[in-house]
Design a protein that fits this description.
Jelly Rolls, nine-stranded antiparallel β-sheet, eight-stranded antiparallel β-sheet, 17 strands
Length: about 220
């Protein structure tokens, strides 16, 4: 699935909101959890990911990774796991920027109600991150002030970052490389599908590889 220029322009204009704190599972707890879903993206074992390809970009299973390749500026492409839906989760996935500029982005869409309503956790190749919600009317709600920088995010090409989301009811925590970035409380979407995404701003090229997706009960 691809979204074009209008999608990324609105990311720059949405209004920041306050974050809230609550209970969350720590990194050590998740390491010992039983996974309710795992995917190493091998061709014979990968889940039912919805992929597509055209001149703007493509999503493929390549070398036991899910690879999103974008060939246009101001484009967001994502691949959705068609089933199952998830509610409370402790989700981890490794992501690597293989090609593109430092303003290339990649991340996770979750509790998706469809292509026009979901939560989004995104990091940028220069070490910034964003947490936001797309509403069905096309408006966005941000949970951090603009793109926030974190030293936990490894910047640049060929740097692998582990992205993690812990969602328990309305309390949602966001980690990179086991460091908590922010935590929000929001009850708009209690459950839904997940997707992996990549995006470009001004540079018309980005390639991102995802691997080792693991989902446990928090």
């Amino acid at each position: 699935m691809k979204l074009r220029t209008e999608f990324l322009i609105v990311l720059l204009l949405t209004i920041p909101t306050l974050v809230s704190c609550g209970n969350r599972a720590g990194p050590e707890e998740a390491e010992q959890a039983d996974f309710i879903y795992e995917d190493d993206f091998s061709a014979d074992k990968a889940g039912r990911w919805i992929t597509e390809g055209d001149e703007l970009g493509s999503t493929t299973l390549d070398g036991e990774r899910l690879v999103i390749d974008i060939n246009a500026a101001n484009t967001l492409q994502y691949s959705t796991l068609s089933e199952p839906d998830f509610s409370d989760i402790d989700l981890r996935v490794n992501a690597t920027l293989l090609e593109g500029s430092e303003d290339s982005t990649y991340g996770i869409l979750f509790r998706m109600q469809g292509p026009d309503a979901f939560y989004r956790f995104e990091v940028m190749g220069d070490g910034h991150y964003m947490v936001e919600r797309l509403n069905s009317d096309g408006s966005w709600k941000r949970f951090v002030d603009d793109w926030e920088r974190s030293d936990a995010i490894l910047p640049g090409l060929n740097s692998t970052n582990e992205l993690r989301i812990v969602a328990v009811g309305p309390v949602i925590s966001f980690y990179v490389n086991n460091e908590l970035l922010t935590e929000v409380t929001d009850s708009a979407f209690p459950a839904g599908a997940i997707a992996l995404d990549a995006g470009t701003f001004g540079t018309p090229k980005a390639t991102i590889a995802f691997d080792n997706l693991r989902i446990a009960e928090p």
